[in-house]
Design goal:
The chain is α/β, with parallel strands linked by helices. The chain folds into two domains: about 5-180, Arc Repressor Mutant, subunit A (Orthogonal Bundle); about 190-300, Trna Endonuclease, Chain: A, domain 1. It is built from 13 helices and seven strands. Strands 3-4-5-6-7 form a five-stranded mixed sheet, sandwiched between helices. A hairpin with a 4-residue loop joins strand 4 (about 220-225) and strand 5. The two termini are about 20 Å apart.
Length: about 300
């Protein structure tokens, strides 16, 4: 995540709070024009995206020459778990063609690669065999769009291009209302990782060796950071309308146990807050943050 992109978005548009800022950034991050944040989100989308549909589509698709290979892969990444293997399967293309397509899309400025930190299998001897599902598992990197606006287009707009061109925006809007809250979760996760890098690491006087999401065959953790001082930090991000409870803390502990990790710090990030039970927890490893805490990333004075 680019802090300058987020800060510039905030100062250009001046949203009323961080919750609104993050939701709008998940759509318009990387969009060059100012938007009127006093208007409903649906009105902003219709005015800035749908009314200019043809010009946006020309900008986004002309480098792709309307090639279904690229369109299918970009959509698969925008709506899926972003892993290489699952993106290729969803787009119904083989690994070789998928890699060629990714190379083109990275060169053309659509995508970047987030490398997996999963370690290869260690065998006690060369002929050791594991269970079939483990033997067949392949480490998979993840794709990232270079801007939230691009990701939003290929997740929500492009799939409904035909009906939008016919003047029927209802299928697009229905899909948007059903899936948007979950869609924002990844942008929130990216901003929380940026908060760890730019705010928490200096606060704790730590230098990070690595930071970002972690995934392997069995477990996925939203945020995992390793410090030069030998500490391991983990975090979970929940973009939901209800308060996060103690169960989420214990779920994260269970994930850490599967990875044989004993975290030195545990960060919980949430949209609006925590249950009384979780707020009352006495665990020196635990730090709690809400969306408004991320306002420091905007360089707001």
């Amino acid at each position: 995540m680019n802090r300058v992109l987020f800060s510039d978005f905030f100062h250009r548009n001046l949203p009323r709070d961080m919750e609104q800022c993050i939701e709008l950034f998940a759509i318009f991050g990387g969009y060059d024009e100012a938007i009127d944040t006093d208007k409903p989100i649906e009105s902003l989308i219709l005015h800035h995206i749908i009314e200019s549909f043809e010009s946006h589509r020309e900008e986004f698709l002309s480098p792709l020459q309307d090639d279904p290979l690229y369109l299918n892969l970009l959509h698969a990444i925008a709506v899926g778990d972003r892993r290489q293997g699952s993106a290729y399967r969803r787009a119904r293309i083989g690994k070789e063609r998928g890699r060629e397509a990714f190379d083109f899309l990275r060169y053309s400025g659509y995508l970047t690669l987030e490398r997996s930190r999963e370690m290869p299998l260690l065998r006690a001897h060369p002929k050791q065999r594991f269970k079939k599902e483990i033997e067949h598992h392949r480490i998979s990197h993840k794709f990232r769009f270079t801007s939230p606006f691009l990701r939003f287009w290929f997740a929500f707009v492009e799939p409904f291009s035909r009906s939008i061109r016919e003047g029927n925006t209802l299928p697009f809007l229905n899909h948007f209302h059903t899936h948007f809250n979950a869609f924002v979760g990844f942008t929130f996760e990216e901003l929380c990782d940026l908060y760890i890098r730019d705010v928490l690491a200096p606060k704790f006087q730590s230098d990070l060796l690595d930071s970002g999401s972690y995934w392997n065959r069995e477990v996925e953790i939203d945020l995992l950071s390793e410090t030069m001082e030998g500490e391991t930090w983990v975090g979970e991000c929940k973009w939901t309308n209800h308060k996060v409870n103690k169960k989420e803390f214990h779920k994260l502990e269970e994930k850490c146990a599967k990875l044989s990790i004993a975290p030195d710090k545990i960060f919980l990030f949430t949209k609006r807050g925590f249950s009384n039970e979780l707020n009352d927890m006495k665990d020196k490893r635990l730090y709690r943050f809400i969306a408004e805490d991320l306002s420091v990333l905007t360089n707001r004075s």
